[in-house]
Amino acid sequence: MQCTMLKAKLHQARVTHAELEYEGSCAIDGDLMDMAGILEYEQIQIYNVDNGERFETYAIRGEAGSKIISVNGAAAHKAQPGDRVIICAYANYSSSELINFKPRLIYMAEGNEVKGSSNAIPVQVA
């Protein structure tokens, strides 16, 4: 059995650039990519907290330490600098891989500073 699971998440990162005429879809600070385990050219989904847009694209490596989150090409119509976004990567896992499965969850503060990390989302209460 294969199951698609959340592999990685950058939670509430801030868009720093929206470049309509730039090749490549979403440039992410290389340090943040490494921390989250997102690979260059990996398919990602982006959820814009500020305007409700949800779209799929791929990650490209931005300059390490730059804190860049640049939404590029056609996707630039869906996010503007300052927007809060959730960037997710998913992967397929076998039953045996799920035994020890833990996603990488990176929580962002203003300025795209990392404020924490986890491998489990807290239980939502009513």
TrEMBL record:
<feature type="modified residue" description="Pyruvic acid (Ser)">
    <location>
        <position position="25"/>
    </location>
</feature>
<keyword id="KW-0670">Pyruvate</keyword>
<dbReference type="GO" id="GO:0004068">
    <property type="term" value="F:aspartate 1-decarboxylase activity"/>
</dbReference>
<dbReference type="InterPro" id="IPR003190">
    <property type="entry name" value="Asp_decarbox"/>
</dbReference>
<keyword id="KW-0068">Autocatalytic cleavage</keyword>
<feature type="binding site">
    <location>
        <begin position="73"/>
        <end position="75"/>
    </location>
    <ligand>
        <name>substrate</name>
    </ligand>
</feature>
<feature type="active site" description="Schiff-base intermediate with substrate; via pyruvic acid">
    <location>
        <position position="25"/>
    </location>
</feature>
<comment type="function">
    <text>Catalyzes the pyruvoyl-dependent decarboxylation of aspartate to produce beta-alanine.</text>
</comment>
<keyword id="KW-0456">Lyase</keyword>
<comment type="pathway">
    <text>Cofactor biosynthesis; (R)-pantothenate biosynthesis; beta-alanine from L-aspartate: step 1/1.</text>
</comment>
<dbReference type="Pfam" id="PF02261">
    <property type="entry name" value="Asp_decarbox"/>
</dbReference>
<comment type="similarity">
    <text>Belongs to the PanD family.</text>
</comment>
<keyword id="KW-0865">Zymogen</keyword>
<dbReference type="GO" id="GO:0006523">
    <property type="term" value="P:alanine biosynthetic process"/>
</dbReference>
<feature type="active site" description="Proton donor">
    <location>
        <position position="58"/>
    </location>
</feature>
<dbReference type="InterPro" id="IPR009010">
    <property type="entry name" value="Asp_de-COase-like_dom_sf"/>
</dbReference>
<keyword id="KW-0963">Cytoplasm</keyword>
<keyword id="KW-0566">Pantothenate biosynthesis</keyword>
<keyword id="KW-0704">Schiff base</keyword>
<dbReference type="GO" id="GO:0005829">
    <property type="term" value="C:cytosol"/>
</dbReference>
<dbReference type="GO" id="GO:0015940">
    <property type="term" value="P:pantothenate biosynthetic process"/>
</dbReference>
<comment type="subunit">
    <text>Heterooctamer of four alpha and four beta subunits.</text>
</comment>
<feature type="binding site">
    <location>
        <position position="57"/>
    </location>
    <ligand>
        <name>substrate</name>
    </ligand>
</feature>
<keyword id="KW-0210">Decarboxylase</keyword>
<protein>
    <recommendedName>
        <fullName>Aspartate 1-decarboxylase</fullName>
        <ecNumber>4.1.1.11</ecNumber>
    </recommendedName>
</protein>
